[in-house]
Amino acid sequence: MAKGAAKSVEAVGERRMQLGRLGDYVGFRMRRVQNQLSADFAAATAHLGIRSGLFSSLALIEANPGLSQQELSGTVGLDKSITVQIVDELEKRGWAQRERSKVDRRRHALTILPAGSKMLDELFAIMKGIEAEVLATLSAEDRPIFDAALDRMYDVFHR
Q: Which residues touch 153 (CB under 8 Å, ≥6 apart)?
């Protein structure tokens, strides 16, 4: 039997799908969970017309008042031109604003507006519901270990 073939399976119809060697790779395993969570979130927020990257960008602006579009782009992992489109949309919806930085006039400082904070409350409530079943598989002791492991993996790319 191929390495990893027996230890990781996925339900497909009436049979269990073998992941084979893919089951040995953290990127594949994380991506398939992320894909499912993203699809569920998109379905739950379809009535709001939330495009990809809007929610995470707004949440990062709230958590980091005054951050630049470049910092946002790097943290979210989006192309700079896509980030500009997202910030344009956040401004159009009245959720965030960009102003010339008082520290560096060459960059824009992003801040959240009250309507954006209200929308985030709604979006985080939706996300909490979507993630509840997945997170329920982790014990209270497992969760901080899981979060710390994810952060350490991410930090490998941003030393």
A: 26
Find the angle CA(111)-CA(43)-CA(22) to the nearest 5 degrees: 95
β-strands 108-112, 96-100 pairing:
antiparallel
Please state, in angstroms and rounded to a whole number, the distance separating the CA atoms of residues 156 and 150.
10
- Kindly report each contact of residues 131-136 with a partner whose C-beta sits within 8 Å and lies 24 or more positions away, as own/partner: 131/37, 134/33, 134/37
Report percent pLDDT > 90 for the chain. Answer: 72
Model-wide pTM > 0.90: no
Tokens representing residue 81 in the block: 């031109």
Pair type for strands 9-12 and 96-100: unpaired
CA 61 from chain center: how many Å?
13
